[in-house]
Structure formats: structure tokens, C-alpha cells
Amino acid sequence: MPEIELSAGTIDYQDTGGDGPAVVLVHGLGFDESVWTDVLTALRPGFRVLVPVLPLGSHRRPMRPDADLSPHGVARLLAEFMERLDLRDVTLVQNDTGTAQLLVGVRDERIARLVLTSCEALDNYPPGIQGRILYAACKVPGGIFLLLQSFRFPFLARMRTSLGGMAKKRLPKDLIARWYDPLLTDRLVRRDFVKFLRATRKDCYLEAARKLPGFTRPALVAWGAEDRMMPPETGRRLAGLLPNARYVEIPGARTLVQLDNPAALTEEIRRFVKDNPLPGEG
């Protein structure tokens, strides 16, 4: 994978290359680029698809000790990534964390189209029982280290109060191991993860929502129809705040829509881009 040095440290990223419109796929907390593999493969014909590995727990390169890894700090890294690669007219696709929302009205000049799949938003933060458990664990010394030990055992990670509640499909044990090995084996990656969790502010996305009505560019809100962690009602409310948004539900999917139903999500993204061409496209 190529790498790029940003202000917080060096990150890896995937880049299919080519001259097609740029699509940036953004993963959530405790995931890496592999969570997007099926969608990236399906979008590759006709698009330049990029997936940055953000410092959210499954990154392989620890960040600098003084890095700002709050949600806003990670959002700034995403903006910096697009700037450093000089990506223009980006279709930005977000899942799980609400990172992309934190760019709206702040550093959104490179975003031409915004796609929000099941993610943290409004008052659903920390989201679901999984989010509340993480939030509580990070307040106790050693709490995150102890909680992470459960991910050594796939049957525990697949419980509905853990990763299993985020996907309708059975998560492969090799993916669980890939996502959580950095957290289990590298104390500096754990340090980065805990920094993000401890920066949690319950009003983070309520504040961000105030800027959403000013984002008049095309938006697609594509929510998992069976999501329990990020309820569809949150997605509908989110779409209602974006003036030029369309709301759809992805059947047979929970939070990890790109794993549960990648074909449906890819089809919606392709349709969205086609229906909202930029000057010189289409």
C-alpha cells in the first residue's frame, strides 16, 4: 500500500488510480481499508477509489505522541489527506463514525457529493450499547485493554453487544483478527485508540448538525434497514437536515452496510453519481 505523511503521522491508503471521478471511502472505529474491499472492487471500473487508513484502532502505524486524535482531529486528517493528494470534486462516502459530517461548513471545499451510510449522528453518540461500553471502559484505567481481550475469541467478538451487532452476516474470523491485531499487539496503537475515545463529547454531532443545512451539494443517506446501533430513524432525521439529500435504506444490512449488502450500496452510489453529474461529467 502507498503511504503519505500527514501532520499527525504517516498513514497507509489504497488507491485504484485512473482518471475517473474520485471516490473516497471512509471506515469507522476499529476497522481498516479491508471493510470496503467489496465496494472498492465494484466501483473500480469507472472511478478512482481511495481508502485512507485513519488512526481509529486498526491502523498499523502509530501516530505522533502529540497528535490530535479527537473526532475533529481525525476529520482534519481526512481533509489533509484529500488536500495532499490534490483530490478535487470528491464523492466522500462515510460509514460508522461521523467523521465526514465534521468537515461540513469547515473544510468541505473538496467534497462535491456526500454519502453517509449508517454512522454516528445527532444525539446517537456514543452509539448503541457498543458505543456506551467503549465510552465507559475508556474512563477506567486499563478498561480498554481488558475489553479488547474479548476480540481474541471470535465467538465473543460476534456477540450482539460487540461486532456481531453491527453486521447481519457472520463476520469472518480472519477479518476480526486483522482489525483487532494492531490493538492487541501494539500499545501505541492502543494509546491512539484511547485518545480518540477519551475525546468523546456527547454533543459532538449535534453541534455538527447545525452546519448541515448549509451543505447544498448533492447528498445521499444510505442506511442499513436493519441497523440497531444506528437506527434508521437517525438516518431519516439526518437526511432531513441536508437540503439536497435523498434517503434510502439498504435491505438486509445493519451498520456495516458495505459488508452486509455491498451490491446494493454500490448500485446506490453509482446511481447517485450518475443522477448528480458535475460540469464535464456524464
SSE blueprint:
Blueprint: E1 3-6, E2 9-15, E3 22-26, H1 37-43, E4 48-52, H2 71-84, E5 90-96, E6 111-119, H3 128-137, H4 143-148, H5 154-157, H6 173-185, H7 187-198, H8 204-209, E7 219-224, H9 232-241, E8 245-250, H10 257-260, H11 262-275
Parallel strand pairs: 3-4, 3-5, 5-6, 6-7, 7-8
Antiparallel strand pairs: 1-2, 2-4
Helix pairs in contact: 1-11, 6-7
Number of E-type strands? 8
How much of the sequence lies in strands comes to 15-25%
Question: Would you list the SSEs in sequence order as H and E?
Answer: EEEHEHEEHHHHHHEHEHH
Are there runs of 5+ residues with pLDDT below 50, and where? none
Radius of gyration: 17 Å
Multimeric organization? single chain
Q: How helix-rich are the residues, as a percent range?
A: 25-40%
Give the strand line-up of the largest sheet.
1-2-4-3-5-6-7-8
The biggest sheet amounts to: 8 strands, mixed
Distance between the termini: 31 Å
Overall geometry comes to globular
Global mean pLDDT? 94
